[in-house]
Please model this.
Amino acid sequence: MKREVTIEFRLDEKKARRIAERLLDLFYNRKGVFEGYSMPEYILPDNLQEGSREHALYLTYVISVDYMANAEKLWARSRGVYRLYPERFQPEAIQSLRDRTLRAFIKGMGARFPSSGVSRGHFEFLLNFLF
Model:
């Protein structure tokens, strides 16, 4: 026996706007559930200078593998990788890595699809275009 259920929603736009504004205020002021929270990409590796060329390369590299990944885990692993291998975030280093090494490196950072989602050409284009 097949049963059919109908669900209807009423949208209260004024209430939705008030809730959104409150959440946005809490987020920007780091209050309530957002107290002590920091976006994972804003936490830099200890050996990376904010605003430097290396900072831009680091963000470019990690953001390019962020597709369908657990962001918290990806950024935490990326900070660890940068602490150990900051030179691997340079365009010349990426170009010199073998494909298998590059895939393993990206997978180790937490990328979900290191083979299909990221290619050497993708990184080279981004890094050479931006820098």
Summary: Residues 40-130 form one domain. The mean pLDDT is 82. The radius of gyration is 20 Å. The first helix runs from residue 13 to 28.
